[in-house]
Every structure is written in C-alpha cells, then in structure tokens.
Design a protein that fits this description.
The protein has 18 helices and 30 strands. With 767 residues, the chain is α+β, with helices and mostly antiparallel strands. Strand 24 and strand 25 form a beta hairpin. It is globular. 54% of the residues are buried.
C-alpha cells in the first residue's frame, strides 16, 4: 500500500519485450488455418513452432479418471473461448496486440457443450472425442444408506452455485529471461506454488529442473487462481530460451474474466432423511461439477467433485449416507480450487437442506443442527466418510452464535414487522474445514502433487539476526509476522530482526506451496523444528563459552544461561562466524544454520470450523438485501496472531458475500462468457461488506506444533449458506425459497413474483 512492493508488473529488464496472445473467439471449433502476415512471421509463433514442447497433463490415479492433454497452443481444435492459438512478441504490449489483431483465424465452429447436466446426456457434443462421453470422473459412496429410507421426514431439494471468477487484485503474469552465466531459465511469476510450477515447466519443456529458477515476488492475491502451471508461462519460457532477451506477459482483466479459469459451478440433487425431532437419519446426494475443458496442473479435474463425496457430511454425525458425483467436461475454461475449494458448495447444499428439514419438522433451524453436530466428548472423531476430526466443540460455537444475535428478540422483531415493509430473517451456517492435508490424503488422489515433510531453514546471521527460509509463499497471509513470532517463541530473536525468505526456488527448500490452509501448520511446524535444533546448537556453543557443562545450562529468551552467567545469541553468532578459535574442538560443524522437516503426528489434516449467523433485511419488491448483523464464532486451534486471523476471516467473508449475492460468470448456448468487465461481473464493495463480530474459540489440535489449525479459507465457506438461509427465513412466509446462488436482486424479485402468482391462483381456486 506504500508503493514499496515489487510485483511481476514492476519488474523491468534491459531489452525486455512484451507478449500478447491470440485467443480463440469460439468455444468449440476445428482449426482450419492460422494466417500470419509475412511481415510478422518472425514475431508470431503457433503450435507448429513449439517443437518438442509437451502438452500439460494433470492426471489422477483414481479409478476411471479420463486424461485430457492440454496443448500449450491449440492443435486441431479449440475447446474453450480464450484458448491460446498463437503468441506475438514486440517491444511494447500495444505493438504486440496490434500484431495479434492482424492474424486471421479460419475456424469451423462446432456445437458447444455449455451445460454440465446436458453434457452427461447421450448425444451431447463431445469435448474430447476419444473419451466417448464428457465425464472426467464418476465416484460413488454408499454407507448403510438403505437404513434411512423409512425416515418420517424426507426432504429433497435441487441446489446450485454459479460459476465464478476469482478476481484477485493482481492478475497472473510472468517475466522470463535466460541467465547466460548460470545457463538457467529465470521465471518471475505471480505464483503461490513456485516449486510446483518448476516441476511442470521441466516436464513440458523437457529440460532438467536445475536449469529452471522460479521467483514469485510480491503476489497480489492468490486464492487458488495463482496455484497452477500456465500455458502462458510455458510459451514465454520457450521463447526466452530462443530469443536472447527477457519477455513479459501481464494478464489484463478481460483475459482474466473470459479466458483463464473459473470456479465454484456445482449442481446438487440432495435429500435429507430425518426423524420428527430433527435427528438426521441420512443424506443422499447426486452432485455434478463443471470442470471445464481441461484438467488443470497439478490439482487435476477430479479434485472438486471427488472431494464433494468425502466432505458433504460436514460437521454432522448421522448413520446413513450415499453420494454420487460427476466431474464433467464442458467447453469452458478449467475450474480451479478457489478459497474454500469444494466446501463452499457442499456447505451451501447441506445447510440449506437442513433448514428445509427444520421447516418440515416445525422446529427452529438451530435445533436440527444442535441435535446432529459432532459433540466434544466424541473427539477425536472418525465420521461416516472416515474423516478424522482432531478436536473441537461445535455445539458451543452454535450456542455462542445464537447468544450473540439474541434469537428471542429477533423473532419478536419479525412478528412485529418492519415499518418500511422490508422483512427480516436470520440465517445459520456451520462448516468444518480439513486443512493441512498430508501425504496420506493426497497420495490417494494420484495427482502430480503430493505433500510430504515440509521443510524450513533457520540461520543466525553473524550479528545475531535470524533468517528463515520456507518453500511456501506469503501473498497476504502475514507469514512474515506469524513465522517470526513462532521463531521468537523458541529462540527469543526479536520479530523485527527476523527476515523471511520465500518465493524463490533457488533459495528455499522444496514445498508444494501455499494452498489448503496449510502454511501455519506445516511451515510453522517446520520453522519451530528448525529453530529448536538451532537452539540446541547455540546451547552447546554457549555452554562452552561459559565454561560449563551443557547439562548445567539452559536456553531462555535468546540467551544461554549457566551457573555463573549467561551469553547472548549475538555473542554466540559472533563467535561461530568471526572467532572460531574460541569454539570447542567437538563443536557441531553444521554451525548456526539448520534445515529441518516437519509433518504432524497424524497427517490426515486438522479440522477448523466456525458457526456463522447473519441477520438480513430483504425488500421483497426490489430484491435488495441489507446485512444488518454478521456474527462468526471460529475455532482455528491455538491462534498465533489473532489480528492476522481476523484479517483472513474478513477477507474470506467479502468473497463469500460475493458468492452469495453478486458474482456469476454466465455463458450463452455457444459457450460465450457473458461478462468481460467489472461492469458485467459484479463484486461486493465496502458498502456491501459489513464489519463482522468475530469471537475466537481455541481447541488445540493434538497433532500439531502449538496446537495450531489452518484457518485461511474458512471465512469464505459459510457466508453463501448463511445468507441464503437468512433470505429464506425472511421471505418464507411469502412462499419463497432461494436455492441458487447468487441470490441477486433480480432472482429474489422473480421468486417473490412467482410466489405471489401461485398464491393468487390458489386463492382463485379456493373461491
């Protein structure tokens, strides 16, 4: 905010030139020809030029998964609007775009697959002809489902979430050059997973990883959008290896909105089975996810839908369950993990159907939740899909949320009515988030990325400062502060004297990066492990300087304390680096630099959770929704820095409100995206996002350093469900039930008008 950051767009290099891409204007078409003016032939490159470059392959080991090969530049046909056909290089972006505009495309349009449900039907056009259908992967879970079929309450709903764009402040981009002295390709990329990008680049370009260096400078928001290997990065890397000068591509907002990646498009047919008192007997669900045209590296197209089946039960304990899912290919850009990944859609479907159960049973929605939440005395708890909940008190979170909104007073207010004619409603939503997934989880997916031991480096400088090196990336999570706090807890080095190095594959240990709310658990645990070993080494040196036995000394607050005195880390560092003659003959030759690895005692993940309660006022004639109060009771285990946690929750809440009320990337029947600017694609602003009331609970994880859990995605998971339930609570007496996001003003007005029409028809029939 002070203008002192360095993003990809700030990087300037001598002789640097800009790249612009020629993108397909059609969603599905055969490529007949690409006509390049002769004057620009040396500045334009097509697939025929990329000799030896391999397609992007994001595979999965799950049975039945179909592989899509994404050519770096389209070959044979295009499968989405915005797919790369060629790239142009020129001294400026404007000149490169002029060259791109001169290229003539000869495309034969094919029927586009734009609806994921229709894509599963026989006779649908095929995105990948050799598959024979449009299904990347189908999964099924069935646990004692037949036992639920005689439940007295059976409530079914069809629920869907819209396709969204992630909309980080900074788009994607890369600056690439060849370091001739090192014979190394240096890629500056707006990436949250630099080591994974290096893996993918090496595979596609066919060069060894030692010749590739990925540098992720400041990154203006990731959210999953910055978590994949880009075809654009491969093109620039190929070009830099041949042209002898740096090249740059910066994604503009039109490219971002229309071409590069989406998220969230889910469809659920879900039935809840329950007793009359609200006790759940079982859940049955068919879930479809629109995965787009290609499987994105490294997460693959299986991640979203296959996760739905395993996480749909959420924080609830019930005996019977069945879920069938489909990952469907369509002529749209690929779907990526987005903050909350599959959990936002799952929470939306499950929490809405629980409110429907409450209405059918004639009880308050909170009663249904209270009867079915996993209880603290059950922890650690293995749920119906074998998710291992490490700790928590879900009923307490619900109780605190209800106390905060004063439910009796709110119901009295509803009964009295609003003087302006608006209707007030309360919505609840509870989720749990599996964070810091480990090897045991991701190895089962069989995708190109499996996390292992997270490593961190800790090094004392000659003057007693501390350098930390992590392979994960900090792009808004505040790791520079929180990891310095972890180190301070162990070594006593002031936070101001601790420097975090990250985002550079040449300077940091290997890591799968920042995703899945994993960094505080994994990188934090690795930093703690490295700092403890560093403290042990410092203790041995300090004991020698104090002429005491190690057993007589202790390390405390940045000093080694012995029987007759103490010595500071600064003195110990000065001795190691500048007065080695004063060291003991048997001193550890590793010195004051440690790289250590960490994995939790049980690496199946931590489970953070929260209860959200929101009060809204809805104008039934205008469809306008005002958020009057928003309460979040969250539990992220032991909090290293509550202020950073609050920032993560508030940022996630803003995105969740966007999902609930505003954001939608719609497509027409030719597969054309219908939003290309922020005039068409609506985002919430300051006036639409309230200041939430946040209450922290702390149930430590028994498996992690300090008892921490991941929390970074939680704020975005629950708001769509909470807001939908609040709107339905407000408009329920009118016969309105919203089951599709976003719940825009237009959709609310249409639902109210339809309900009034049904009421009028019923009245005439009764008369």
């Amino acid at each position: 905010m002070r203008g002192r950051g360095q993003y990809v767009g700030d990087i300037r290099m001598p002789k640097m030139q800009d790249v612009a891409f020629v993108r397909s204007p059609l969603a599905h078409a055969r490529i007949r020809a690409i006509h390049v003016p002769e004057a620009y032939r040396d500045r334009v490159f097509t697939a025929a030029d990329l000799d030896g470059v391999q397609p992007i392959r994001a595979v999965s080991g799950l049975p039945g998964f179909k592989v899509s090969e994404q050519p770096v530049l389209a070959v044979g046909k295009v499968r989405q609007v915005g797919e790369l056909l060629a790239f142009c290089v020129a001294p400026t972006r404007a000149e490169a775009e002029d060259i791109a505009a001169s290229i003539v495309l000869d495309l034969e349009e094919l029927p586009a697959v734009h609806d994921m449900l229709a894509a599963r039907e026989p006779g649908s056009a095929l995105v990948h002809e050799h598959w024979g259908d449009n299904v990347f992967l189908e999964t099924q879970v069935d646990v004692n489902f037949a036992d639920a079929l005689d439940a007295p309450i059976q409530v079914s709903r069809t629920i869907s979430t819209a396709r969204q764009c992630m909309a980080p402040i900074e788009g994607r981009g890369a600056v690439v050059h060849l370091d001739h002295r090192m014979d190394q390709l240096v890629v500056h990329s707006a990436s949250q997973m630099p080591h994974i990008v290096r893996n993918g680049l090496s595979e596609c370009l066919g060069i060894e990883q030692g010749r590739i260096r990925i540098v992720a400078p400041d990154v203006g928001g990731g959210f999953g959008y910055k978590g994949i290997l880009l075809a654009e990065e491969i093109c620039l890397a190929w070009l830099a290896l041949r042209c002898g000068h740096p090249v740059r591509w910066l994604e503009d907002r039109r490219e971002h909105l229309t071409a590069n990646a989406n998220c969230r498009e889910h469809h659920y047919r879900i039935t809840a089975y329950a007793d009359r008192d609200g006790t759940l007997r079982g859940i049955d669900c068919e879930a479809t996810v629109d995965s787009g045209a290609y499987s994105a590296y490294p997460f693959s197209a299986c991640l979203e839908a296959a996760q739905v089946a395993s996480i749909l039960p959420g924080p609830y304990d019930f005996p019977s369950y069945r879920c069938r899912t489909w990952s469907v290919a369509t002529n749209k850009c690929p779907i990526l993990p987005y903050r909350g990944v599959a959990r936002t859609g799952v929470c939306f479907a499950l929490e809405l159907v629980l409110d429907a159960v409450a209405r059918e049973a004639g009880i308050e929605p909170w009663v249904v939740r209270a009867k079915n939440l996993v209880r603290p005395e059950q922890m650690p708890f293995d749920n119906i899909t074998n998710k291992h909940f490490d700790s928590g008190d879900y009923p307490q979170a619900l109780a605190r949320a209800l106390d905060a909104v004063d439910l009796p007073a709110l119901r009295a207010r509803q009964a009295a009515g609003e003087p302006d004619g608006r209707r007030v409603g309360l919505g609840l939503s509870i989720y749990c988030e599996q964070a810091a997934h480990g090897t045991s989880v991701y190895s089962g997916w069989g995708i190109p990325m499996v996390p292992g031991h997270e490593q961190a480096g800790a090094r004392l400088t000659p003057d007693g400062g501390l350098e930390l090196r992590i392979g994960a990336h900090s792009h808004g999570q505040g790791l520079e502060t929180t990891l310095a706090q972890v180190a301070h807890e162990i070594l006593g080095v002031p936070v101001a004297r601790t420097h975090l190095v990250h985002g550079d594959t040449a300077m940091t240990p290997y890591s799968t990066g920042s995703w899945g709310s994993r960094v505080m658990v994994m990188a934090g645990g690795a930093v703690a492990t490295a700092c403890r070993e560093l403290a042990d080494r410092a203790l041995a040196i300090g004991a020698h300087l104090l002429q005491a036995e190690i057993s007589e000394c202790r390390f405390a607050a940045g000093r080694v304390v012995g029987p007759t005195g103490d010595v500071s880390l600064e003195e110990i560092a000065r001795t190691w680096y500048r007065r080695p003659q004063d060291l003991a003959p048997d001193v550890n030759p590793g010195g004051l630099e440690v790289t250590a690895g960490y994995k939790p005692q049980r690496d199946s993940g931590t489970f953070s959770y929260a209860a959200h309660a929101v009060v809204v006022a809805v104008d039934p004639d205008l469809g306008a929704v005002e958020i009057l109060d928003y309460v979040i009771i969250e539990d992220g285990g032991v909090l290293v820095n509550p202020l950073v946690v609050d920032g993560q929750i508030c940022g996630g809440l803003a995105q969740g409100i966007g999902t609930a009320l505003y954001e939608e990337m719609a497509f027409d029947d030719r597969g054309q995206p219908l939003a290309s600017t922020f005039a068409d694609y609506l985002l919430p602003g300051a006036a639409e996002v309230p200041d939430p009331r946040i209450d922290h609970m702390e149930t430590p994880s028994p498996y992690t350093q300090f008892g921490v859990k991941g929390i970074g995605e939680g704020g975005a998971i629950a708001p769509p469900a909470a807001l939908a339930n609040a709107i339905n609570d407000a408009l329920g007496p009118l016969g309105v039930e919203m089951l599709r996001s976003p719940m825009s003003q237009r959709r609310i007005v249409e639902a109210v008008l339809a309900a009034r029409h049904r009421t009028a028809i019923g009245a005439r029939a009764a008369a």
